[in-house]
Amino acid sequence: MSQTVLKREHIIKIDSTNEELKRRFLAGESEPLLIRADEQTAGKGRNGHSFYSPQNTGIYFSFLYPCKDEKILEDTIFVTTLSAVSVCRTLRNAAGVDTKIKWINDIYLQSKKVCGILAEAVYRENPSGGRELGIIVGIGINISTTDFPEDVLPIAGGLGAFSEEAMEKLKEEILSEVGEELLYFFEHPKDREFRDKILSEYREMSMVIGKQVSFYKDGEAEEKGIAKRILDDGSLVVENREGALIVLNSGEIHLHMD
Ligand code: BTN
Fold first, then answer.
1. What span, in angstroms and rounded, lies between the C-alpha atoms of 33 and 63?
2. Which of the residues in the chain have pLDDT under 70?
3. Nearest atom within ligand 1 for CA of residue 115
4. pLDDT score recorded for residue 159
5. SS (H, E, C) the chain
6. Which of 118, 142, 252 gets mutated to test ligand 1 (max ligand atoms within 8 A of its CB)?
7. How many A from CA of 9 to the centre of ligand 1?
């Protein structure tokens, strides 16, 4: 457990909780802060995609950590790995829902994506002429959402139906578990035992190991192969059709579900 108290705010409706935290950081916010919204009008996903965030049927929140130095940038993959593990574990313990992680950090319930994670870095100038870094981690979970826009309908899904009370309880559990774990990590980024525990949970929760995947390495042509293992820094090793081992540390893979 961290000694710092994580400040939290609950906003009814906002463009994007990631954007709101960016604004707060640029306006001088100096403490870790978590903002939750009931609805986002311009929820952002990775690679310029939007994240559908209708009123009340999901949980949309972002965590800001104003950093003392920029060394933490070496660990940004781990920040999203940790977030994915923390969400999956909380969903299992608090709601009995068994979700899996599709590398790198999308969370699936069977064949549908129920949660996405977007980590961003933001910089501001400090009075002595240097710059300060803020890391923002945004997480969106579709809980009872069913009416997805057409473009995401084939892949997006929700966790299922919950009473209002059960849904609020679940949201609270997620916010406190994920918020606490992110705060702990940013305050103890070199805690090897903590990292090993998260990585071993990540490997257990992964839905890609042993599966056929398609991927692009460094923007080159599409390749196919078998996902072999996850390394300690969160990267994925894939064996291509020629038997070569390829290490992926960013980008997307396409998983062949059959
Ligand atoms: C993805 O799957 O591409 C990432 C989706 C991240 C969505 C969350 S919802 C809360 C936070 N605010 C945003 O605008 N995006 C993230």
1. 6
2. 1-2, 219, 257-258
3. 2
4. 97
5. CCCCCCEEEEEEEECCHHHHHHHHHHCCCCCCEEEEEEEECCCECHHHCECCCCCCCEEEEEEEEEECCHHHHHHHHHHHHHHHHHHHHHHHHHHCCCCEEECCCEEEECCEEEEEEEEEEEEEECCCCCEEEEEEEEEEEECCCCCCCCCCCCCECCCCCCCHHHHHHHHHHHHHHHHHHHHHHHHCCCCHHHHHHHHHHHHHHECCCCCEEEEECCCCCEEEEEEEEECCCCCEEEEECCCCEEEECCCCEEECCC
6. 118
7. 17
Give the binding-site residues of ligand 1, using a 6 Å CB cut-off.
Answer: 16-18, 40, 43-46, 49, 51, 53, 60-62, 106, 116-118, 138-140
> How many whole angstroms separate alpha carbon 203 and alpha carbon 208?
9
| pLDDT given at position 252 | 83
**Which ligand 1 atom sits nearest the alpha carbon of residue 47?**
3
Nearest CA to ligand 1 atom 9: 140
- Residue 106 alpha carbon, nearest atom of ligand 1: 2
d(Cα 171, Cα 141) in Å, to the nearest integer?
A: 10
pLDDT at 251: 79
Q: Which of 34, 249, 9 is nearest to 138 (CA)?
A: 34
Atom of ligand 1 nearest to the CA of 42: 14
C-alpha of residue 127 to centroid of ligand 1, in Å: 32
Q: How far is the CA of 194 from the centre of ligand 1 (A)?
A: 25
